[in-house]
Amino acid sequence: MLCCALAHSTLTFLIRLGATRFAFPALSTILIRSVIDGTLSSLYIIKYVDYEENIRSVTGRQWLFVVFRGVTAGCSIFCQVTALKLISMGNAVTLLSTCPTISTVMAAIFLSEPVGSIDVLSLITSFVGVVLVAQPSFLHFPSRSDSEASKDVDIGYGIALAAAWFTSSMSVATRFLGRSVNFMVNVLSLAVFLFTISLMLCGPREFDNLKNNIPGLSVNILAGICGCIAQSCLSKSLQFCRAGPALLVRSMTIPFSYCYGLIFLGEKPSLLTLSGVAMVVAAVIALSLKELRMDERFMQSSAFVSTKESYADS
């Protein structure tokens, strides 16, 4: 998961670099990403995946979740790329990192899972942190600069939160599938959706930009490789570890992104923004530690039950 955080931070930096320095269109970025994801995942599946064991045995319901995962992950990427054209990469990643709190709300609504005091406190802390990071114009924050006061920036923050919602839905689908589907099949489903939609939306201008903007093309090819690594690591880690420790490690994406933005793009966050970032990270850590404790209790109870059964058999 740490590899996923580093790859995702690098991906975010490269997309932001391509959009701000080389004026590379979002649809062209997504098209390149889909080609790289599709090529690398197909090669992996052809060489390493047993068709009979991992493909043919998948049920119809599981295929529906594979498609659902590809669609939600694709929508998340569309939102991320669009948001990175409008707001700084550190703020975009911070809003995207609200996935754990959004997942808690979704689980309570759709799965009737109980919500404890830690969940409520984390939700409130995360919400306040998001407000401090986004600093919406209708609240008239004094620290917000004139360049950040446009409606496009507010739209960018809203799109980043939409990306977090889609990512939460994708994570739920991935956890449901577990190890029944090879993790690269999930990456391939994402590539198929992105490629189909980007081809439908891309016009002649986007294809001309691929030929005429070589620096931007090079940056986005690197971004596509990092994106494939991040997606593969995310799918693989969600098959082997529960959401708590995974989200705890992935929260490292936030400091990585702010370091990239400060060093290479000159994006210096305000003290109020950093306070919001700290609140979002604290909320993620609180939810993650809660799930870690739940995992430990589950393992202890499972060990106790297995011990009792072994004594009963003897």
TrEMBL record:
Residues 1-133, 155-288 form the EamA domain. It is found in: Membrane. Pfam families: EamA. It is a multi-pass membrane protein. InterPro entries: EamA_dom, EmrE-like. The chain crosses the membrane at residues 63-83, 89-111, 118-135, 155-174, 181-201, 213-234, 246-265, 271-289. SUPFAM superfamilies: Multidrug resistance efflux transporter EmrE (SSF103481). Its main location: membrane. The keyword Signal applies. Residues 1-19 form the signal peptide. GO terms for cellular component: membrane. The keyword 4Fe-4S does not apply. Keywords: Membrane, Signal, Transmembrane, Transmembrane helix. PANTHER family: ACYL-MALONYL CONDENSING ENZYME-RELATED, SOLUTE CARRIER FAMILY 35 MEMBER G1. This is EamA domain-containing protein. It comes from Gracilariopsis chorda.
